[in-house]
Amino acid sequence: MRILIADDEPKMGLILASRLEEDGYFVKSVTSGADALEEIVNGYDLLITDLKMLDMDGIELMRRAKGILPELPVILMTAFAGVDTAVAAIKGGAEDYIVKPFALDEMAMLVSKVISSQRLREEVLFRRNASSENLSIVGDSEAMNCVMDMVDKVARSEATVLILGETGTGKELVARAIHGRSPRANGPFIPINCASLSESLLESELFGHEKGAFTGAHRAKPGRFELADGGTLFLDEIGEIPLGIQAKLLRALQDSVIYRVGGINPIKVDIRLLAATNRDLQRAMDDGDFRKDLFYRIAVFPIEIPPLSERREDVPALARYFLRKAGYSAGISKKAIDVLSIARWRGNIRELFNVLERATILAVGKIIEPKHFPPLEDISRGTVDRPETLEDMERAALVDAIRKCGGNKTKAAKKLGITRRMVYSRMKKLDISEDDIGL
């Protein structure tokens, strides 16, 4: 957390900064409103300002600072206590105010309260906007009961958890369940998909950047580590992180300190790390694509989520759950449930939900029957007229893009909206060779 103090009494600013630094905050003190406005663009989580300063008062500074950072919480310090002062402060957008002289510990408690309130608002907003938050872990199979038993046990600890499983098995939902059952449940849950960003963007997203750190960095920006302070950071697809960033990630986890891109000031962070991957990290280590020291740091408590094919008894509950969430009240026939229960589901729960969403459209408000499903791979036959799993479609799309780009992986990546590294990673996972591309 970064705190900016504005007080035209330099001694007061330095004493207050020294006390707040003891609580692990990065604190900078300036002696005028103008200096505060010049500094605020570097990105701060809290502004503490004196009400009376020579160049501008605290109310004016607050107004102008919020023009730069609209969500910035502000604490006003004043020697002029009274109802009018309180009303002016709160109407102006202050989070709270404190009367001079005050004990340093009193200010430290107020800062903690304000920052906790800010985190809670951010978490509520995030939960409101996160579509995956509308989903729950569904299933009473022995396999899922085992997973949830491990979730309950590890949630109460601070151990780093590595969640393993195929694409579409619900790894993020398990991570959210761990966070929700942990002592950090009131703190933020901040996810990031490491496979969806280029190396430079991923570094900035993780650690943040300072103003001017690179072209286009017009103002400072906190990274996911800072946003997750006091809560949980979830690194999805951690196996896709480039080696250069793996080293910085390991250092951050060991020291609980990060440096923004282009920054020199250490920022202390208090996070619990949860990570997930569908890659074989042991093989990645053998190939030199994943650091062994990072692996042993994140794999303190591995949890493996079984594929849907190993928990078929959960399919009926999952299907009915999806239809309830989709608001489809017409229902589904027993025969249709039986068909769903014996399919292979190579795309796991995500594929099941896609099939059901398609069925709700075709059924047009009537009971869903097997005729509303696309051809599904039957476990008893092991064949299908025309498989249309997510893996099949991904393989076809990747091969087609590389062919259309004449074998150029960089152009294919741009065409697909992914990174070049992801192209090679997906080719490896889907077992696509150059002969398959046929150029």
End-to-end distance: 53 Å
SSE class: alpha/beta
Strand order of the largest sheet: 2-1-3-4-5
- What Rg, in angstroms, do the CA atoms define? 26 Å
Shape: elongated
Mean pLDDT: 86
Number of strands: 12
Characterization of this structure:
Helix content is 46%, strand content 12%. With 439 residues, it is α/β, with parallel strands linked by helices. It has four domains: 2-121, Response regulator (Rossmann fold, 3-Layer(aba) Sandwich), CATH 3.40.50; 140-304, Rossmann fold, CATH 3.40.50.300; 310-372, Helicase, Ruva Protein, domain 3 (Orthogonal Bundle); 390-437, Homeodomain-like (Arc Repressor Mutant, subunit A). Strands 2-1-3-4-5 form a five-stranded parallel beta sheet, sandwiched between helices. It has a five-stranded parallel beta sheet with strand order 7-8-11-6-12. Strands 9-10 form a two-stranded antiparallel ribbon. Strand 9 (257-258) and strand 10 (267-268) form a beta hairpin. Helix 13 (315-325) packs across helix 15. The chain is elongated and about 75 Å long. The protein starts with a strand and ends with a helix.
Task: Give a quick summary of the entry.
The protein is built from 19 helices and 12 strands. With 439 residues, the protein is α/β, with parallel strands linked by helices. The chain has a 5-stranded parallel beta sheet with strand order 2-1-3-4-5, with helices on both faces. The protein has a 5-stranded parallel beta sheet with strand order 7-8-11-6-12.
